[in-house]
User: Fold this.
Amino acid sequence: MASPYGNVDRSKEGERLYNPYQDLQVPIHTLYRLPTSPEFLFQEESVAQRRSWGENLTYYTGCGYLSGAIAGAGKGLFDGIKAREEGDTLKLRVNRILNASGHTGRKFGNRLGVIGLLYAGIESSIVAVRDTDDVFNSVLAGLGTGALFKAASGPRSAAVAGAIGGLAVGVAVAGKQALKRYVPL
Assistant:
């Protein structure tokens, strides 16, 4: 019988290692052999090569918040360094930098998190309505996200933000396609 501990170097051939599971009537060797292929409840789910709307919502919101918080903390770091005054102690300078980083990081993180939330919701809705998953859905979702995010600022701001959102997503999708085609990974 093979050792349950893998390849064990035995210096004395007559010794036997203690196996705490040998008297248990539990299939311990096969208990944790999990399948490597994805498991789906329905066969139709395995055909779709797309995340669900809940996974998209979590992914885009989390990525948006994290990247916004990191970018905002970096901007706050520079703002805190620039705001130093003559005669400040080290403790006061560090406090000013941490306050500026935290404030700006929270602000940027919340904004990008909301943008990710809106984008995921709009994109999933468009995919559900059109019943196809293509580049057009992403561009429309970017357009709708920009317009909805700036809707409180007036129709002109919403139109400009929608155009910027659609253009930004179009550039991102085109860049992703170019990377897939021309960069060997």
